[in-house]
Each structure stands twice: as structure tokens, then as C-alpha cells.
Amino acid sequence: MIPYIGYFGSFLTAITFIPQVYKSWQSKSVGDLSILMVLIVVLSTIVWLVYGFAVDSGPVIVANFIVLALTLVLLYFKITFKKQPPLS
Questions:
Q1: For the chain, how many structural domains are there in total?
Q2: CATH number, domain with residue 43
Q3: What Pfam families does UniProt report for this protein, alphabetically (predicted)?
């Protein structure tokens, strides 16, 4: 039962960035998204992945691999989407 709880927790963790990725993709805008936050998330997920592989924890590896992928998408959006001019 405990492994299922771990995988369910990893699923919930992994989907946390999906709404932001979807909204950013739809609006083609990430102006309010903090680049520092994105970089911190990338670094923390890399550290968690190293840990997950070191202790052979499937839930940690799965969750952080997905979070890293979604965060890298946000980073790509942050770099490629042009800042929108303010509405007057």
C-alpha cells in the first residue's frame, strides 16, 4: 500500500505545473512568471532526481522527472515569448 501512496503523491506533485504551462502556452505570455523561481525549481528537481536515483525511489524519480520537464517548458516559454505591451 505504501508504494501506491508514494506514486499517488508523485502524481500530484508532477501535475502542479500543468495549469501554469497550459495557461502560458494559451496566452503566449509569461511576463509575471519569475525567472528566479523557475531556475530554483529546475535546480531543486535536479537535486531530487539525484537523490531519487541514489536511494532508488521510483516515486521521487517519476515526480521530479515530470516536474523538471514541465519547468523546462516554462523556461523555454520565458525565453521565447515576447513581453506583451500593457493595455491602455
A1: 1
A2: 1.20.1280.290
A3: PQ-loop (PF04193)
